[in-house]
Amino acid sequence: MTSKLDAEERKALLGALEDSGWRAAEEGDAMVKRLIFKDFSAAWGLMSRAALCAETMNHHPDWRNVYNKLEITLSTHDCGGVSVLDIELARALDALAEGVAEVDRDIGRPLMRLADQVED
């Protein structure tokens, strides 16, 4: 079973993801990112590519798509919080979205706030 990131791992890993637009989810130990595409087809195309990547990793995002917007939430349900699987999937999703989507940075709390939310 995958375990939640500890305080040191969070400090080391979350900063770069915050810079790429990931934020702390409003509720729970999770990360969220919202992407804006030129249209529904572009959003759906990224979701299709992301689904193949997630399936390969056997780690699946929670997401919501409305027309040209996609909101992705990552948390590892088995451990009840953010794990290394979420970091790896976030990086993969960022690579897929590069040059295809605009990041909506006006959501959620700073991701580094999750560095202070470690519970044993």
TrEMBL record:
Pfam families: Pterin_4a
UniProt-listed Gene3D superfamilies: Transcriptional coactivator/pterin dehydratase (3.30.1360.20)
Keywords: Lyase
InterPro entries: PCD_sf, Pterin_deHydtase
E.C. code: 4.2.1.96
Catalysis: reaction(s): (4aS,6R)-4a-hydroxy-L-erythro-5,6,7,8-tetrahydrobiopterin = (6R)-L-erythro-6,7-dihydrobiopterin + H2O
Domain of life of the organism encoding this protein: Bacteria
Cell membrane listed as a keyword: no
NCBIfam families hit by this protein: PRK00823.1-3 (NF002018)
Family to which this protein belongs: Belongs to the pterin-4-alpha-carbinolamine dehydratase family.
Name of the featured protein: Putative pterin-4-alpha-carbinolamine dehydratase
Organism listed in the record: Thioclava marina
